[in-house]
Amino acid sequence: MASLYEVVDRQISLDIGQRGSQSLYAAARASEPLCKSAAEGLVDALDSGQQVVLTTGFPVGPTASPETDGPLGTAVLAETLAALGADTRIVVDERTRPVVASLLAVLDGSSQLQTLPADGDGTALLEPEPAALIAVETPGRTADGSYRNMTGEDISAQVRPRDAPFEQAATDGILTVGIGDGGNEIGMGSISEAVADHIKHGETIGAVTPVDELVVAGVSNWGAYGVVCGLSLATGQQLLHTGETERRLLAAAVEAGAVDGVTGEPTESVDGIPAEVHAHVVDILRYYTTQHSDS
Ligand code: MG
Ligand code: MG
How far is ligand 2, taken at its centre, from the CA of residue 295, in Å? Predict the structure, then answer.
């Protein structure tokens, strides 16, 4: 029988948007399910220090609006880690900040929210130095040094780079986690060949920065929820939110200026998939983890 971690991995890696994420999932998978490996890495990191830093925010369209994929997963994962005793800090650009602030309000969250300085190479993420550094749906530098969206467009002017702290963290022995769905996010450097082979414009858009724990999902928010499920299973506590809360989070994100990353529209959808589907995915994930949790 498949473990519940395995079932969670299958759920989060469903490629509903048919963008090739299943091939990336297969490349990222070593032995353990991705949600198990990432969750266990985070539990270990929390044993060595309580600070965890998370970042997110992919600019969409000429206005560089933040997309709905990323902030929800980041806020839910941050609050989960806070519930497990971590001191969590979310660092984002000024366009993404109001979106994350609105999500933390819905979650009654305790995470600190910090704006990434406009100058610099993102080293604010390491000041002070955390035990773990997590990127959810965060633009990753490509081989030619540019940043690209899924259509191959150069969006470097809109991106505040955050690759350097992930490289530095690797040198310093800080756990790095990357969560993505398209191949152009921080962490996908761990599976560059698969991105080039299986993703449209993969050779151009593929991100080069690797991470210790890469979680590939059909939608990046689901990848973060998968890690929350992994943490639920690892600790025997139900840590995931509900489908009803997912709908409130998505409504709050759009109200605060987030848009769908696929359509560019300010609708309650993520990657072109409507809110009710995301709510169902969350409820299904919650059902799996309830079977082996206390509450
Ligand atoms: Mg993506
Ligand atoms: Mg996405």
Answer: 30
Using the mean position of ligand 1's atoms as its centre, give its distance from the Cα of residue 182 in Å.
Answer: 4
pLDDT exceeds cutoff 60 at 145: yes
Q: What's the alpha-carbon Rg for the chain, to the nearest Å?
A: 17
Q: Which ligand is nearest to the CA of 186?
A: 1
Ligand whose nearest atom lies closest to the CA of 199 = 1
Reply yes or no on whether the pLDDT at 272 is more than 80: yes
> What is the rounded average pLDDT of the residues 172-201?
97
CA pair distance 10, 70, nearest whole angstrom: 20
* pLDDT the model gives residue 295: 41
For CA atoms 193, 195, 199, 205, the dihedral sign is negative
How far, in Å, are 133, 144, 186 from residue 164 at the CA level?
A: 12, 15, 10
- 110-142 pLDDT per residue, tens: 999 999 998 889 999 999 999 999 999 999 999
Q: Residue 271 burial by CB count (10 A; 0-12/13-18/19+): exposed, middle or buried? A: buried
Closest alpha carbon to 70 in 207, 263, 270: 270
Q: pTM of whole model > 0.85?
A: yes
- The size of the chain, in residues, is 295
CA of 185 to the centre of ligand 1 (A): 6
Q: Which numbered ligand comes closest to the C-alpha of 270?
A: 2
Rounded CA-CA distance 138/166 in Å is 12
